[in-house]
Design brief:
The protein is an alpha+beta fold. The chain has helices at residues 3-7, 9-22, 46-54, 133-146, 166-171, 189-192, 196-208, 234-254, 299-319, 356-359, 373-389, 417-426, 429-434, 436-455, 459-465; strands spanning 27-33, 39-45, 59-62, 95-100, 106-107, 114-122, 150-162, 213-218, 224-229, 232-233, 258-260, 274-282, 285-286, 341-343, 350-353, 361-364. The protein is built from 15 helices and 16 strands. It is globular and about 65 Å long.
Length: 469
Amino acid sequence: MSTSDRAGGSRQVAEAIQWLDEQRIDTVIIGGADIYGIMRGKFVPRQPFIEAIQEQRDFAMSDVFLVMDSVEEQVFEPPANYPGYFPRKETGYPDLFLRPDLATLRSLPWRERTAMVLGDHYLPDGSPVPISPRHVLRRVIERAHALGFESYIGLEYEFYLLQETPATLAQKGFIGPQPLNVRPYTYGITGGMQSEPLIAPLRQALSEFGMALEASNPETGKGQFEINLHFAPALQAADAAFLYKTGVKQFALSRGLMATFMAKPQSSWAGNSCHLHQSLWRGTTNAFYDEGDRHGFSDVMRHYAGGQLASLPELTAFYAPTPNSYKRYAPYSWAATTATWGVDNRSTGLRAISEGPHGTRLENRLAGGDANPYIVAAAAIAGGLYGIEHAIAPPELYQLDAYAAPPGTLAPLPRTLAQALDHLAHGCMAKEYLGQDFVEYYRICKQAELEAARLAVTDWEVKRYMEML
């Protein structure tokens, strides 16, 4: 494989080395996303990193990290005689290789003389790891390219800032986390000013980290915030969202605080969402826009919406990846509960936005803050392409309050991870678009997570039953 095939060529390597020198970088963090969207990788001193990229050597990591649960208490195993790719103890969890994408190299504003670069996972034979989230998104992007489209997305993640650290929260048994603010300040400017001594430096740090920010605002929970990222080509946007989530958490820790993107951190708190804005482009033309349509929606957009709505039940497990994810789905939570779409309607599953030739797009409102940006982007684009390739007509635009619809009138979405995994197991679309290895791997891991949740005794159960029964 040539240098240009691997990392952008010798010129890019030379430019990276020059940049490391100019920035006086002495440590490079190379990392990639696991199934949960957690960054896994290595801290590499400057000189070994330079030697590796000069010699086209990748960074070895045991493949066990792909089958650990999020808190590293369990390692998932495939069924006997499982035919697909799956890290397993029988093979001793051998190395896979993390290859730096030098286009993503950047400095860390909250840590001196430290840089970070994203990487792609490869097997020893040089082929992509089929269950790597970044590769799964690449697969779908390439399918869009084959149809003549460039997929653009914008991801909006909500998060809570807590007056905690991992240590203080563990000492409390993870009971009663204290949010940053004593009350919510939804879009509140005066209330939001109380947090600006922290949020303004966070915005600045994220900007220096390479994030193209649009705005930030307090959300509907105590200490809950949203920072909007500018839309971009799908891989670039997913990278930005992944780095954004990582950056927010690292910045919070640097200030003695803790950030969480957990979908529903407490029963009484508002949930954390991930709103996914999406459109397809042909060159400089938005393929979702048609000036002759009443709403400005093209047939491409309608078929994209039709496919996404038709595939939502099968793909829900990707948008809502944990048992906790489904605690968000309640009336007037402004989370999607039905396979519906409407014009600027936040009660429907898809919010169709009509803003002329540049801004016409779809917003998917199903995903939570816990969703892996690579996986959720891949799932959304796959659903849309499925609709285009099969010319799937969407239902009528819903103009009313979807939460108030009489039972049985609108198509419901899975309400538990078990239901979502059942839809995934019996579907064919996800395997075709995302890859059978990935879908089966994902389903096995999530079934194990579901079983762990089933066996756990919760605080709610203890409070409800210990005295009375």
